[in-house]
Amino acid sequence: MGCVESMNYEILMRNASFRECRDYIRQHFREFIDVQPGFKIFDIHLIGIPPIAIGLDADFIVFPYTKPCHGTFLLRIEDTAEAARLRRLKK
Amino acid sequence: MDVVLNGQELVNVSGEPITPRGSALLVLGCPQVPVQTSIALYLINRLRKSGIVTVVAGNKSANTLLLIADPDRHYLGEVMDLDRAVGLISDKKRDFDRCFVFIHNDAGVTYAATMGVISKAKLFTLIYGEHYDDLVKQVDFPCTIIAAKAVHNPLPLKKAIDEVTPWAA
Known about the structure:
- Chain A is α+β, with helices and mostly antiparallel strands.
- Chain A is built from 2 helices and 7 strands, in the order βαββββββα.
- Chain A has a 5-stranded antiparallel β-sheet with strand order 1-7-6-5-2, sandwiched between helices. In chain A, strands 3-4 form a two-stranded antiparallel sheet.
- Chain B has one domain (21-164): MTH777-like (Rossmann fold).
- Chain A binds chain B through residues 2, 17-18, 36-38, 40, 44-50, 66-72, and chain B through 28-30, 32, 58-59, 61-62, 82-83, 86-87, 89-91, 105-111, 113-114, 117-118, 141.
């Protein structure tokens, strides 16, 4: 179990395809960044078909989280420091 | 090359260690489709007989199916957690010459695309299951596709692998 799974997260989508999650982020969040697979967020390296979209909404971060048996989840986690780090990467 | 499988070590018929011809990572998917475990052991055997060191990465269930099937490790070499493998490769701490990704669902395609970016390995996608043809259409990144409609019977996928001979590539 990764640390993300022990965090206080909200599941916005479950059992979705990776592309559905990416489309959701781009359609529902004015602020997002594109990263490559392997990009580290919290304690995990992101799995995904490039580019991977990460949504930002104030201190909330929305990102895809893929597991082999359960497909891709779209998770929403509040973390002020991580949101700030991601915003710095946009510049 | 005369190669004998001896635990994790590759040795010749005299029992002397040999220099590996390369390395291969097998990325396992969800083990709910029965052919995965059988094909993984078959592929490991063929790769190791060609002098290629193999490492398996999967979730706990997929790895345990292999470990229980090969308790004396006649075929299996190193086995590691999938998330750990992704982390090591992403951090450039480890890489392989070949990477085989088992795919029977959308998550499998996602893992394969990830390996194509983070690893320098020659990428092979093993696509199987009831809806293998739909999954093949989703693979739009560089790799060698090995695909067959195989759910319970591994022979169609074995045949497809034998035609590609990835251990010789």
